[in-house]
């Protein structure tokens, strides 16, 4: 799980072009949207593609993302339970 | 009563760096077929949250627009009018490659969102929180002049007091290769300046140029925009009348034109038109600028910056003159631009 | 502007018809033009529905009598079909009699060819003639050349509000006395580029779109072109022209909220409608029918609905989105809907908002669900695009 979370942080930084953010800067429970990392709805769509491409998880409704993308922790939990690759 | 439109601020990001009073004097002539812009640091101007998604064209546009607004002391324009020939090419190409290379799978939205032609104007609005009129013209070499005409209509009719008007175009690899393939851009290895060019094609570049325009005159106002004219087609025989009619409609005699600013770009097909026009203006100082900033669809916007500087300071560095003639006073300046005989534009400026 | 700018011609090609009359018949008979993609291949063929014009490029070329070696992209072909009809209807025989302009608009331009030959261009000399057909100005040039128009020609691209802005600029050029006559509108062809782009935003419906419905799932893309001919009062009088309708008001504003999404309270849309009413010198209560933008995305219809309520309060006039007929035709949409607005005026008919079943829970806004004959003197038409670009046009009867 720790490994998955590290990997996830790196991928988030990469796909969202978070130039000034390092893996160490993101805590497992930090909010990704709003006050935390400050991501927005376009980022949510980027994360949906990341879930599909890297872990074979298809989310058809952007609203589903809301609970899954709360933090790196919630994302990792969801991926661990649902991944197909 | 018709109001007067003044140029009160200029901003630019070009192959010679960003706009400053020294830019023209310090510029060196381009000799290569492609010259990317010299980017400033954007960090101070654009927040990290916004800049992370922006292509170069958007960053350039924002930088140039803020420079223009600052100089014109405009906090919030009544309209934002932009021009671009090819739009946000980097993102268009990036998204298209993704579509083609991945068989329409695993595509992400960012590049698509930023690929729309009005991205620069809308990102400027978003950053300024400007809810005013927001237009983008996309018509090859009159993209900028269309935006300028739109701004002029609004200022002269009193519909707006302060307008941000400008243009930007960015280079991207694939489009560049294609344009080179069909001879629009000079071949690799050809080292010709605009003046000594003997081949078709241009030295290509990119850039963003914006203006803060207002109906109020300031102590540092550059010039007054008298009129703008655009026409899709003018043949070389009609050119004389096209120019004469424009001047006549503005009650300016040909002899009153104190300088011509031409879009001469080193493409022998395009440049014939300028040679033709010069025959009627042989005693007039003639200025060119694309030897310094290259050709791109909206590069003529830089011509307006050069003209503004000439009228404000009544002089220009020597390297801007195509033909130098004795003139004491520069009152009326006429800009003329076209590309391969299409999309002709005339802009008439008057000193303040 | 007491009466507005005269409209003396209109032309259209869409998935519900290849002329003004054909579009009218489909509208009143409530016959939509939404289907699967047939003209090109896409891996999303079974996931989406589109408003595709069932004519191949070859058929369009034949119809227009173009030489085989032309470099018309689909956008240019569609644009020319519609522009030609508009010019014919306006009875223009000689383009050079008056100072005539053309302001077109497009979002994809020649992308349909670029996406086909993007890599092949480098190796296939025979295809290279299409390279310069990519940019947005190309289709406008081709239309001007075909019509023999020498004058003010330009192109606007502000995403899905583009054609409204072309119409607006045309009107202002006439009002300022710079032009006597101007052809205004827009054209956009379907392309893989836009289909995939909207797909990544997850706003494409897998079925028929349902504007202003509680259960709407997104939009259907479409392709189309439409143009109007605007003429000055002097030309109308001198030539004794029949005026189809007047463009009474127009407004453009920016939502300045988000690069693609509309704000919660529809501020940009509200400002655009407010400006247009002011230019027309009208009150909200003067409007008899609203052709809404109504893309059927969750975000647009909610935002636009709120803006409509801010303008019209509890006196919302009959309204409908005609995008369930044509799909969302992007840069052309406002021109398509301008033609429909003029038809609504001429024939006193409010069109049906197809596929509507359940009112949205956020407010009470019920669109017309059937073709309705009703006195219509003023029509307001909305078009909004990416980058917060919001435009409103108001048409009045002649």
Q: Provide the number of structural domains of chain B.
A: 2
Total strands of chain C: the figure is 14
> Count the helices of chain B. How many?
12
Give the SSE string of chain B.
Answer: EEHEHHEHHHEHEHEEEHEHEHHEEE
- Give the oligomeric state of the chains in this entry, treating copies of one chain as homo and distinct chains as hetero: heterotrimer
Share in helix of chain C: 25-40%
What global shape of chain C is seen? globular
Mean pLDDT of chain B: 96
Number of domains of chain C: 2
Look up the CATH topology of the largest domain in chain B: Peroxisomal Thiolase, Chain A, domain 1
The proportion of strand residues of chain C reads: 15-25%
Strand proportion of chain B: 15-25%
Query: Which protein chains make the most extensive interface, counting residues with beta carbons within 8 Å of the other chain's beta carbons?
Result: B-C, 64 and 65 residues
Tally of helical runs of chain C: 12
- Termini separation of chain B comes to 19 Å
What does this structure look like?
- The complex is a heterotrimer of chains A (85), B (352) and C (398).
- Chain A has helices at residues 2-15, 41-55, 65-68, 72-82.
- Chain A has 4 helices and no strands.
- Chain B is an alpha/beta fold and 352 residues long.
- Chain B folds into 2 domains: 5-214, Thiolase/Chalcone synthase (Peroxisomal Thiolase, Chain A, domain 1); 224-350, Peroxisomal Thiolase, Chain A, domain 1, CATH 3.40.47.
- Helix content of chain B is 34%, strand content 23%.
- Chain B is built from 12 helices and 14 strands.
- Chain B has helices at 23-26, 48-51, 56-72, 89-101, 109-115, 119-128, 143-156, 173-181, 239-249, 268-278, 290-293, 300-313; strands spanning 5-14, 17-18, 34-35, 79-83, 133-137, 162-169, 204-205, 207-214, 223-233, 257-262, 286-288, 321-323, 332-339, 342-350.
- In chain B, strands 1, 2, 4, 5, 6, 8, 9, 10, 11, 12, 13 and 14 form a 12-stranded mixed β-sheet that branches. A two-stranded parallel sheet of chain B has the order 3-7.
- In chain B, helix 10 (268-278) links the parallel strand 10 and strand 11 (286-288).
- Chain B is globular and about 65 Å long.
- The mean pLDDT of chain B is 96.
- The mean pLDDT of chain C is 97.
- The radius of gyration of chain C is 20 Å and the shape is globular.
- Chain C is an alpha/beta fold and 398 residues long.
- At the B-C interface, helix 4, helix 5, helix 6, strand 5 and helix 7 of B face helix 4, helix 5, strand 4, helix 6 and helix 7 of C.
- Chain A: Keywords: Phosphopantetheine, Phosphoprotein.
- Chain A: InterPro entries: ACP-like_sf, PP-bd_ACP, Ppantetheine_attach_site.
């Amino acid at each position: 799980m720790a490994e998955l979370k590290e990997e996830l942080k790196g991928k988030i930084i990469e796909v969202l072009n978070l130039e000034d953010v390092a893996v160490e800067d993101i805590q497992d429970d930090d909010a990704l949207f709003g006050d935390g990392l400050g991501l927005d709805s376009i980022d949510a769509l980027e994360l949906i593609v990341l879930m599909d491409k890297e872990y074979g998880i298809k989310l058809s409704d952007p609203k589903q993302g809301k609970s899954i993308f709360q933090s790196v922790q919630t994302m990792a939990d969801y991926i661990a339970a649902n991944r197909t690759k | 009563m018709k109001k007067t439109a003044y140029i009160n601020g200029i901003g630019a990001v070009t192959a010679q760096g960003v706009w400053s009073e020294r830019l023209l004097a310090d510029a060196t002539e381009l000799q290569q077929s492609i010259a990317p812009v010299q980017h400033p640091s954007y960090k101070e101007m654009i927040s990290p949250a916004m800049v992370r998604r922006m292509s170069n064209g958007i960053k350039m546009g924002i930088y140039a627009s803020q420079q223009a607004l600052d100089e014109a002391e405009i906090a919030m324009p009544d309209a934002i009018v932009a021009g671009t020939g090819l739009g946000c090419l980097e993102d268009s190409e990036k998204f298209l490659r993704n579509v083609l290379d991945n068989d329409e799978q695993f595509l992400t939205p960012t590049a698509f969102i930023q690929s729309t032609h009005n991205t620069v104007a809308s990102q400027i609005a978003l950053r300024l929180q400007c809810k005013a009129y927001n237009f983008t013209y996309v018509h090859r070499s009159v993209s900028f002049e269309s935006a300028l005409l739109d701004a002029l209509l609004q200022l002269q009719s009193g519909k707006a007091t302060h307008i941000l008007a400008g243009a930007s175009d960015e280079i991207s690899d694939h489009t560049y290769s294609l344009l080179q393939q069909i001879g629009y851009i000079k071949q690799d290895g050809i080292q010709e300046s605009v003046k000594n060019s003997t081949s078709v094609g241009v030295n290509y570049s990119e850039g963003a140029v914006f203006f803060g325009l207002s109906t109020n005159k300031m102590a540092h106002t550059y010039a007054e925009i008298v009129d703008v004219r655009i026409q899709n087609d003018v043949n070389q025989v009609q050119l004389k009348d096209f120019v004469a009619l424009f001047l006549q409609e503005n009650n300016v005699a040909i002899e009153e034109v104190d300088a011509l600013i031409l879009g001469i770009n080193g493409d022998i097909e395009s440049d014939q038109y300028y040679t033709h026009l010069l025959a009627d203006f042989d005693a007039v100082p003639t200025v060119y600028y694309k030897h310094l900033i290259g050709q791109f669809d909206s590069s003529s916007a830089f011509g307006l910056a050069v003209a503004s500087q000439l009228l404000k300071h009544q002089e220009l560095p020597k390297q801007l003159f195509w033909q130098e003639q004795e003139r004491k006073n520069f009152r009326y300046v006429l800009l003329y631009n076209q590309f391969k005989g299409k999309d002709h534009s005339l802009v008439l400026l008057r000193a303040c | 502007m007491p009466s507005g700018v005269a409209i003396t011609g209109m032309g259209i090609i869409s998935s519900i018809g290849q002329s003004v009359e054909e579009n009218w018949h489909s509208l009143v008979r409530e016959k939509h033009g939404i289907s699967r993609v047939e003209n090109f291949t896409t891996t999303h063929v079974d996931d989406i529905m589109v408003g595709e014009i069932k004519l191949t490029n070859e058929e369009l070329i034949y119809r227009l009598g173009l030489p085989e070696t032309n470099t018309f992209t689909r956008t240019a072909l569609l644009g020319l079909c519609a522009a030609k009809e508009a010019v014919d209807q306006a009875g223009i025989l000689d383009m050079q009699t008056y100072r005539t302009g053309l302001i077109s608009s497009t979002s994809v331009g020649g992308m349909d060819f670029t996406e086909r030959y993007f890599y092949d261009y480098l190796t296939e000399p025979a295809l290279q003639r299409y390279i310069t057909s990519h940019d947005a100005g190309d289709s406008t040039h081709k239309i001007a050349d075909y019509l023999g128009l020498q004058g003010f020609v330009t192109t606007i691209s502000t995403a899905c509000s583009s054609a409204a802005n072309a119409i607006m600029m045309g009107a202002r050029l006439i009002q300022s006395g710079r032009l006597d006559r101007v052809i205004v509108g827009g054209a956009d062809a379907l392309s893989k580029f836009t289909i995939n782009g909207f797909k990544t935003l997850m706003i494409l419906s897998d079925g028929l779109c349902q504007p202003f419905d509680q259960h709407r799932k997104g939009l259907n893309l479409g392709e189309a072109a439409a143009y109007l001919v605007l003429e000055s009062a002097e030309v109308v009088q001198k030539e004794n022209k029949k005026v189809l309708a007047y463009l009474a008001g127009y407004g453009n504003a920016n939502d300045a909220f988000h690069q693609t999404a509309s704000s919660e309270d529809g501020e940009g849309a509200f400002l655009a409608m407010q400006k247009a009413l002011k230019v027309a010198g009208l009150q909200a209560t003067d409007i008899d029918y609203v052709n809404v933008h109504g893309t059927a995305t969750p975000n647009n219809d909610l935002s636009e609905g709120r803006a409509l309520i801010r303008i019209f309060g509890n006196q919302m006039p009959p309204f409908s989105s005609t995008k369930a007929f044509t799909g969302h035709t992007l840069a052309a949409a406002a021109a398509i809907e301008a033609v429909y607005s003029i038809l609504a005026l001429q024939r006193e008919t409010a069109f049906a908002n197809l596929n509507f079943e359940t009112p949205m829970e956020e407010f009470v806004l019920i669109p017309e669900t059937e073709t309705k004959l009703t006195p219509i003197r003023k029509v307001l038409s909305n078009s909004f695009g990416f980058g917060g670009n919001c435009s409103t046009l108001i048409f009045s009867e002649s």
